[in-house]
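User: Please fill in residues for this 338-position structure.
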């Protein structure tokens, strides 16, 4: 096990924030993870598990041990008439996994194309896009309990998935390292093109016969046109969740702001488009120093170069405050603040 000291995390987060980890190491297998976590060195320092760093905002140096997950490998574990079950190392890049599924004709994750980060973090916040969430294809996962030093499986119900939520963000926060995730992928695709501009994009592409490749391509091109490329402009995708409010509150807001955007969600609730609320408060395109609110999508906060995590965090505070003042709605951050 190689431990680096005062290691720059700038290349390891999509926000590109220049902070250091006091200690940094990688693990490529469950055995390597156990070796590190059971070492006397590890007992002396707090640990942070890092995947692709695409859902983290570092606001200061990390005074502990950052462990980067590099467990690779994709294998078929079983199949039945309907599904192929595929086990994937937590350190596999999510989009590479999606492309693997598409190449092999395994359906279910095509709407989740081009989401940055690793497979291991996908259940953390039940990643979702274009009408699909990880829970829809989830089979089970394995996770290592840091203190109990045991590996245990988690079923779908045990993960307690919700909108950008799971048991790993709440009850078991910082307790487990997810080492692999298994998915049940459809042998016969069930296409989901009703969300957003997918159908419009497919028409533009001239697609006559629907395939999972075509849907993936459509989503890649929509996402590329709407979201900044984090390799050029640092960001972590949607910075805030879409807030959920009771239907009667929604009707009241709609009376005052007829243009407000909301979607029915669960019983008697509405999910508001956080981007719309932020835009109405005048933040879209805002820039202070190198911290800003992206000009094409107000939900995305960006680092134009040398912004500090604190500057981006402070901007998010100001946004939360102004949305609260104008609409009485409290925005919650989707990004993990460290
Ligand atoms: C341009 C852009 C677009 C995005 N679009 C979407 C989108 O459409 N939908 C969506 O849901 N998200 C989106 N995201 C957010 C992000 O890609 C996902 O949340 C992704 O799953 C994060 O994966 P990661 O490996 O980068 O996690 P990291 O940022 O490295 O970690 C996130 C959290 O999970 C923990 N963690 C990571 N791996 C493990 C593990 N193996 N075991 C235990 N804990 C772990 C970390 O400690 C941290 O708390 C987007 C991000 C960007 C930059």
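Assistant: Residues filled in for all 338 positions:
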């Amino acid at each position: 096990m190689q431990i680096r000291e005062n290691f720059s995390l700038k290349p390891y987060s999509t926000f590109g924030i220049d902070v250091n980890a006091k200690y940094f190491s990688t693990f490529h297998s469950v055995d390597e993870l156990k070796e590190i976590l059971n070492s006397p060195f590890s007992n002396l320092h707090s640990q942070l598990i890092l995947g692709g760093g695409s859902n983290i905002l570092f606001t200061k140096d990390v005074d502990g041990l950052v462990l980067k997950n590099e467990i690779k490998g994709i294998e078929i574990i079983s199949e039945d008439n309907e599904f192929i079950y595929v086990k994937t190392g937590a350190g596999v890049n999510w989009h590479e996994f999606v492309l693997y599924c598409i190449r092999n004709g395994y359906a279910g994750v095509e709407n989740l194309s081009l989401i940055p980060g690793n497979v291991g973090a996908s259940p953390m916040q039940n990643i979702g896009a274009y009408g699909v969430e990880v829970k829809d294809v989830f089979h089970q996962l394995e996770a290592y309990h840091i203190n109990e030093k045991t590996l245990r499986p988690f079923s779908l119900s045990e993960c307690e998935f919700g909108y950008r939520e799971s048991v790993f963000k709440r009850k078991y926060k910082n307790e487990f390292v997810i080492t692999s995730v298994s998915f049940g992928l459809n042998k016969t695709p069930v296409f989901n093109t009703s969300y957003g501009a997918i159908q419009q994009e497919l028409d533009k592409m001239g697609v006559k016969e629907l395939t999972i490749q075509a849907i993936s391509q459509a989503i890649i091109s929509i996402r590329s046109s709407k979201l900044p490329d984090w390799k050029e402009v640092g960001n972590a995708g949607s910075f805030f969740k879409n807030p959920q409010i009771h239907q009667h509150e929604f009707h009241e807001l709609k009376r005052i702001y007829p243009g407000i955007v909301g979607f029915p969600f669960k019983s008697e609730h509405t999910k508001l488009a956080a981007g719309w609320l932020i835009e109405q408060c005048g933040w879209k395109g805002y820039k202070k120093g190198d911290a800003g609110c992206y000009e094409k999508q107000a939900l995305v906060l960006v680092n134009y170069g040398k912004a500090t995590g604190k500057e981006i965090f402070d901007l998010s505070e100001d946004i939360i405050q102004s949305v609260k003042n104008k609409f009485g709605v409290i925005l919650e951050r989707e990004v993990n603040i460290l």
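For context: Residues 14, 48-56, 69, 90, 115-118, 120-122, 124-125, 127-129, 176-178, 227, 230, 235-237, 336 surround flavin-adenine dinucleotide (CB under 6 Å).
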